[in-house]
Amino acid sequence: MRLRKIVPAFFLGIFLLALSSGLAQAAAVFVTGKAKVLNTDNSYLDFTNYNSNVTVDNATGNFSGYAFLEDLGWIAFGTTDNSLGPVNVNLTNGAVTGKAKSLNTSAYVDFTNYSSNVTANITTGVFTGYVFSEDMGWLNFSYTGVSASSTLDAVAPLSFDLDSPGDNNYTNSERPTFKWKSTTDATSGLSSYSIEVDNGDTGDFSLDSIPVSRTTDYETTKYLAHYENFSDSDSSNNYISAYSKSTTEWGDNNNDGKLKEGKRTWKVKAKDGVGNERIESRTLFVDRTGPSAAFIQVNSSPLADNLATLDTTPTIFGRVTDPLAGDKAENKVASGPRSVEIKLEKKNFSGLYDLHSLVTVNFTESYWSNTGAKITDNNKNTADKYSTFSFTPSESLGLGTYRVTITGKDNAGNTGASTSFSLRITTLAKIVPPEEKEVIEEVKEKPETVVEVPAEEAQAVQNFISQVFDNLRNIYWNVVDATKTDISYIASLWQGYADFMHITNQKALAFIGRQLIGAGQFIANSYNALAQKAPGAMGKTMLAFRNAVQTSADAIAYAFRSNAGTITDATKGGRETIVYYLSPAVRSVGQFAYSQQVKLLSIAEILFDKNPTVISNVKVAEVGKDYAVITWETNHYTTNNKINYGETLSYGQDVLSQERARHHEFKIIGLEGNKKYFFEVMSQNKNYVYDAHHEFTTLPE
Questions:
Q1: 213 — phi, psi (to 5°)?
Q2: Angle at 229 between CA 228 and CA 235, to 5 degrees
Q3: Most buried of 1, 231, 329, 572, CB within 10 angstroms?
Q4: Residue 607: which of 627, 647, 637 has the closest Cα?
Q5: Around Cβ 414, how many Cβ atoms within 10 Å?
Q6: Element (H, E) at 608
Q7: Cis peptide bond N-terminal to 86, omega within 30
């Protein structure tokens, strides 16, 4: 019997060579220890020595390899050399079944029949119980301890959620950030994460060996991983995110770790301590091609460059198309048009273009270019996608030539090339606001009141009028010289009304009004001559500004005359006192004078200030349960001041003010408590200006 323990060396070598390919399997768990042969009491089935190499597949529970029985020789536990194998351990209850074959005798070590009862503890890997050898009788697996080298874990980590990018979402990023929620493994614990990207026919890449838990970022040459909320005891909100980096360590077929344009699949693998994997995957559409924008017509006229129209609020029609793009036909994508930016610029007297307005039109519907059918599922990518738009200016366009430029943007954030055309408005637009025109007409209808004024007071009036003339002349000549106008002259002119009221009693006010009308007429007559000498567009600009100055002068003069009987020394507090604190009659004069100052300043900014109108310092000044106070500043006096607000970026509600101001304050009321609102602010002077994507949350009820 002892002689049968001797096995030729070449025979053992053949066995080991045949098994060498299985040693590298990640899920293979080695079996070690000895099972005692009870009949002989001094020999063993040895899983540790004699180059024994029995393993258990941690995914299936199947045994493979050979153990050495000191009385019989090699015992095959797998299917190699063993037609009735393999031996198997149930990875749920630990029961061992199947047959291992004795190569010398062709008999079996039977784990199923003969009342054999070997089991393995799944958590510890320790075997217990007895198995029957048809040659040797009972073998005791408990006596000297047979065990697996690690946990017999066939259960993958728990499923987990992928956070972003969303499934079937669009992106224009070659290196998006992949984010997922951390998971757990109750048996053998998590080992690592990895991200795998299917990049089409070529260019696949992976981010491997991402640690499962950290409180700081983890960076390699190929990627950076970020860990959120791992520093506290709450594991329910732990997230990991990672993105690839450019490096020469990427192989020739890894596309430098970048996503290619088209339909792509990304997956996150969570691996436990014995190699079990849980895989979660998503589809991502990578769109890096910008849409094309094209004009179609203006009103009912087909588009032609340098098109002319008598309509001061023409409607412009156009189309934005987002083309399919990608590496092959079945993978091509188009995220679809999202919005179009329409820019109007007006040609000035020097031949350059000044910004008039900048408007964004958002699309709510898109269509298939091959059929014209409305798209109901934008994640389908069967053809190019397009949207049409129409735009009508909210205010009449003045006489002149405009350059209209459109630029499309798609849902992935790509901006396409701009296209433009020239449009001439041939209808004369009047600069004088309607409310001021009404004042002029009213002035013409009112009889003039003449009051005798002492000589010294009359002289003071004349001195004041001379100062008015000097200020106006300075403004006019600066315009003629085409230099930057000092707008402070205009401000000082109207402030002068309030200052002059301190030194003049009420008897002189009617006289002042009369003189101011004369001053306006004098300026108008002399200014006509100046404007006629100015070239082309400059002359028209000067005439327009002269009309505005005279309009304000006439209006303020009438206000002084008609209220002369009620104005007293109480005006000595200055403009602010006039506007806010005096009797209603006096306050109305002060307010009107101030409004004339602001209107004239606003016009002067449009004509002479070369800087565009801009918004700054947008603030949520105050928030309550059902209201919010929004403030912002503009560098010019603006009208059409507006807040669009709502519970989404589509807004849906607005508040509007036409008051000319540089500081803007709006109170939004009727809101719901403890709710987030989005808003944008808008103002207009020489151009429209927007400041969007702000938000606030109301206080709880």
A1: -155, 130
A2: 120
A3: 572
A4: 637
A5: 19
A6: helix 584-608
A7: yes
Using alpha carbons, select from 692, 697, 642 the residue that is nearest to residue 671.
697
Residue 148 CA to residue 429 CA, distance in Å, equals 92
DSSP result, 330-353: GG-B---EEEEEEEEEEE-TTS-E
Tokens (6 digits) for 511: 């006289």
Instruction: Give 344's contacts (C-beta < 8 A, 6+ positions apart).
Output: 355, 356, 357, 358, 393, 397, 402, 403, 404
Q: At what angle do helices 488-501 and 584-608 cross, to 10 degrees?
A: 160
What pLDDT digit, counting tens, does each position of 214-244 carry? 999 999 999 999 999 999 989 899 999 999 9
Bridge partners of residue 420, in order along the sequence: 405
What strand order describes the sheet that includes 337-347?
307-309, 419-425, 400-410, 337-347, 353-362
CA-only gyration radius of the chain, Å: 44
The pLDDT tens digits for 591-627 are 544 555 555 555 555 555 667 788 889 999 999 999 9
The alpha carbon of residue 336 and the mean position of all alpha carbons in its chain are separated, in whole angstroms, by 17
Q: Which residues contact 148 (CB under 8 A, 6 or more apart)?
A: 29, 30, 31, 32, 56, 120, 125, 126, 127
**Of 68, 66, 70, nearest to 23 (Cα)?**
66
Structure tokens at 2: 């002892």
CATH T-level fold of 162-286: Immunoglobulin-like (2.60.40)
pLDDT band (50, 70, 90) for residue 275: confident
For residue 661, name the pLDDT band (cuts at 50, 70, 90). confident
- Fold agreement between 162-286 and 292-425: yes
Q: Where are the domains of the chain?
A: 2-148, 162-286, 292-425, 434-608, 615-697
Give the predicted TM-score (pTM) of the model.
0.52
Dihedral sign of CA atoms 600, 606, 607, 612 in order: positive
Pairing between strand 169-171 and 277-286?
parallel
Could you tell me which of 455, 451, 473, 452 has the C-alpha nearest to residue 463? 455
Burial 92-111 (b: 16+ CB within 10 A, else e): eebbbbbbbbbbbeeebbbb
Neighbours of 463 (CB within 10 A): 10
**Do residues 668 and 645 make contact, with C-beta atoms less than 8 angstroms apart?**
yes
Beta bridge partners, 664, equal: 632
- Strands 307-309 and 419-425 come out as parallel
Residue range 292-425, CATH number: 2.60.40
Comparing CA positions, the residue from 109, 61, 59, 60 lying closest to residue 82 is 109
| Helix 509-533 / helix 536-562 crossing angle, nearest 10 deg | 170
Q: How far apart are CA 200 and CA 679, in angstroms?
A: 41
CATH number of the domain located at residue range(s) 615-697 in this protein: 2.60.40.10
Q: Is 242 within 8 Å of 177 (Cβ atoms)?
A: yes
Phi first, then psi, for residue 354 (nearest 5°) are -105, 140
Which residue is it, tokens 């001439």? 424
Partnered with residue 110 across adjacent β-strands are: 99, 132
Is the pLDDT confidence value at 530 over 50?
Answer: no
For tokens 């008051």, the residue is 659
Cis upstream peptide for 165 (omega within 30°): yes
Phi, psi of 466, rounded to the nearest 5 degrees: -60, -40
- Residue appearing with tokens 């009047």: 430
Collect all residues with Cβ–Cβ distance below 8 Å to 183 and sequence separation of at least 6: 157, 158, 159, 160, 190, 270, 278
CA distance 105 to 97: 21
